[in-house]
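Chapter summary example: a protein plus adenosine-5'-triphosphate.
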Amino acid sequence: MSFATRAGVVRAVDGLSMSVGRGETVGIVGESGSGKSVSMYSILGLLRGPNVSIEGRVRFNGQDILGRPDRELRALRGKDIAMIFQDPMTALTPVYTVGWQIAEQIRQHTDLTKRQAHQRAIDLLAEVAIPDPSRRVNQYPHEFSGGMRQRAMIAMALSCEPSLLIADEPTTALDVTTQAQILELLAELQERRGSSIVLITHDMGVISEVADRVVVMYAGRPAEIGTRQEVIREARHPYTWGLLGAVPRLDSKRARLVTIPGNPISPLDVPPGCAFAPRCTYRHDRCSDRPPMRGTDHLDACWLDDAEKEQRRAEIEEAS
Amino acid sequence: MSDVILRVDNVTKNFSVRRPGRGGRSQIQAVGGVSFEIRRGETLGIVGESGCGKSTLARCIVQLLPVTSGTVEFNGSPLTGLSRRQLRPHRREMQLVFQDPFASLNPRRTVADIVAEPLRVHRFGTRSEIEARVRELFTLVGLDVNSLVRYPHEFSGGQRQRIGIARSLALNPQLVVADEPVSALDVSVQAQVLNLMAELQEKLGLTYLFIAHDLGVVRHVSDRVGVMYLGELVEMGPADPLYDAPLHPYTEALLSVAPELDDGRARTRERIVISGDVPDPADKPSGCAFHPRCPVAQDRCRIEKPSLIHAGDGRLVACHFPRRR
Ligand SMILES: Nc1ncnc2c1ncn2[C@@H]1O[C@H](COP(=O)(O)OP(=O)(O)OP(=O)(O)O)[C@@H](O)[C@H]1O
Ligand SMILES: Nc1ncnc2c1ncn2[C@@H]1O[C@H](COP(=O)(O)OP(=O)(O)OP(=O)(O)O)[C@@H](O)[C@H]1O
Ligand code: SF4
Ligand SMILES: [Mg+2]
Ligand SMILES: [Mg+2]
């Protein structure tokens, strides 16, 4: 997926292949600008326009959805696939009550009457644990706290019982106690309804708490994909090692944090070989060619051979 | 010189705010009766959720905001109630580093100018002495001296935070008050800045008051930690025991839900998800301000406000029923 900009072509997502199973939670993690949001927006047809070009294939329930007409995609979004954004204020309109907005969304995809949709909105607010839902349903978004707005967003997303929920940093703007409430709510709803979740975050801690499988992105490319266990305990990509090592721990104090030298790169100047090479401690000759994603279930894009990866990882673990 | 560099005694800060819907104005207490000391060379971390008064406290300490009551003492002399002119010699000794490296740097000035500004204001020396000092500061924080003539927007977030740190260190302060200095940064860059701050502390013998909402970051940098809730300190003490065995139910709940890497070495814990939201500071609950959300609250908590009392081993807690260890 690329944007044509005045400064040149931005390849915001480059060669991402991933799948989401039924009832599964897939976490997408990476630093700012790594293409997490754009990758999901582009598959939903949310990015359009003359400067946007998308290649590849996206299948949902076995059907190709990329490039479908806008009308069809709109019907799919909100009904089968729902999206939750980082800032609920962008998705909620300030001039309508929360209840009206949820009811309207329901009416677009069902033939419930106004009254029935309103009642359903109250039930949904109750389901996402908003206290006093029959009163709250008539309030405006600004009368809700940040956590309550995010709950309202989730209620709206759930209104048509989607089978896939894409949540883009749903808790990044929230405090830890509120974050815990929202993550617990998502897990509960998933268990109850068996839906699949894609959770976008930059927080390895959040990933570690909720994801079944993890996609680590760097500079628009997947660096590593595997189960949570594989990525967190047996990481194979030097970037993942850096990400994990940079997180300050709650249970013990390390003298120094592992750091990744340099800064996250701009998608305008991704080097020709491995995108991570300029910051990589283990860079070597082969890295001037682009490493393919290798592996069967646990995949990574790094030229180091397996034995070497194992050894490096052990060294890092030893040191910290 | 005394071992205590900063003494904060019963500091309260009220704001008068318009109440939507109700008309008229009312007082909110952003900081309520906070007391603590910081010893020279130590790092005191302050942690708490959004709106609990961390930034207000920081601004009261460096005298960017007048306190409503209470005193702030720096190196043994009281700062509260001093005139601007009287404050001036103290100001250079205590510097504030802000959260947002983007908003806190003037976009129309070169970074050399930005770092030199406090030097000029405090008449550090001749032009060439100032220039030399700026170069020295750039090297100190790991920035390329060739980039001195560039503008803030040409730098990344982490580099901008380094510029902010360089500026705050320009006058050789004794105390650096850092208000969420790494919250806006990506984790790999955050780690670089945290390591830099640790190095500088060692090299220059700095004292830090380090404010953040990230529990892991606070533990990593702090010798002692204070936990704030609704403008008040609810627990305070040496970092390790506070994290390993919190005394206040709020600290315990916070730590139990902080996301953590499950890499096989993490502690086992039971999640305590507390319900509801932080109350509006304008409607502070009676008794213990935490009681409506507290999993172990009793009748007494609704009525009687617990004060921050000693709990042994340098620990303090404000709770009628602290967790038993
Ligand atoms: N409309 C656009 N035009 C040009 N470039 C864009 C556009 N939208 C995004 N980009 C670029 O695409 C890249 C990926 O952006 P994206 O928003 O997906 O990152 P992200 O991983 O979600 O980051 P964050 O954690 O900051 O949300 C970025 O470099 C961004 O600057
Ligand atoms: N100038 C002001 N006028 C009125 N109220 C204020 C003012 N500054 C802060 N407050 C209020 O005081 C309380 C404490 O705010 P403060 O900014 O100190 O919190 P904080 O702990 O720094 O939060 P955050 O983590 O979001 O930065 C909040 O309720 C805030 O709305
Ligand atoms: S391919 Fe080379 S540069 Fe890229 S991560 Fe692996 S070792 Fe580092
Ligand atoms: Mg994003
Ligand atoms: Mg603040």
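Key point: Residues A 238, 274, 276-277, 280, 282-283, 287, 291, 302-304 surround iron/sulfur cluster (ligand 3) (CB under 6 Å).
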